[in-house]
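Input (structure):
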């Protein structure tokens, strides 16, 4: 069963990342965590190439496992909530010229709430 297998894989892979979210340091749980690509390479395993829903997600994790084991430095373990925030910022920032992306990140780091 791919669902149990994908859960075992995520639990096992989480050990590569101290079993916690890179950003919040929340302890890893089976639900609510994702492996985030820091960058993509040609022929990469990409979630959008799989069907929506649990079955697609489970097959994606099964197929992603060898890449994560081979190149753990290309991924971080984060919560779904952090992943959503990251994707929204990234989608907005990706439209900026590269130099403006850097300045945006500096502005983000300098800004206090």
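Output (sequence):
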């Amino acid at each position: 069963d791919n669902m149990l297998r994908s859960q075992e894989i995520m639990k096992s892979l989480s050990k590569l990342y101290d079993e916690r979210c890179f950003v919040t340091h929340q302890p890893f749980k089976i639900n609510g965590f994702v492996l985030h690509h820091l960058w993509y390479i040609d022929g990469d395993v990409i979630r959008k190439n799989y069907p929506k829903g649990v079955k697609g997600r489970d097959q994606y994790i099964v197929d992603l496992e060898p890449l994560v084991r081979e190149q753990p430095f290309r991924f971080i373990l984060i919560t779904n909530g952090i992943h959503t925030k990251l994707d929204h910022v990234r989608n907005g920032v990706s439209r900026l010229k590269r130099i403006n992306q850097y300045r945006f990140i500096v502005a983000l780091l300098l800004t206090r709430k």
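Notes: The chain has four helices and two strands. The two ends are 46 Å apart (CA to CA).
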